[in-house]
Amino acid sequence: MKQPKLPFWQVWNVSLGFLGVQFGFALQNANASRILSDLGADLHSLSLFWIVAPLMGLIVQPIVGSASDRTWSRFGRRNPYILFGAIAAAVGMAFMPNAGIVVAFVAPILFGGVMLALMDAAFNVTMQPFRALVSDMVPSEQRTLGYSVQSLLINIGAVLGSMLPFILTNVIGLENTSRGGEVAPSVIWAFYIGASVLLGSVLWTVFRTKEYAPKEYNAYKGIDEQALARELAERKSLLQRLGGFTRLLFNMPRTMRQLAVVQFFSWFALFIMWVYTTPAITQHVWGVDAKWFDHDYLATVGQIPDHIAAAKGAAGDWVGIIFAAYSLFAAIFSIALTRIAGALGRKPTYALSLLLGGLGYIGFLFFQGGAPTQVDLLITEVTVPSGALGLLLPMVGVGIAWAAILAMPYSILSDSLPASKTGVYMGIFNFTIAAPQILSALVAGPILHSVFDNQAIYIIVLAGVFMILGALSVFFVREPEVAPTALEPEPVVA
Question: Fewer beta carbons under 10 A from the terminal one: N or C of the chain?
Answer without folding.
Answer: C
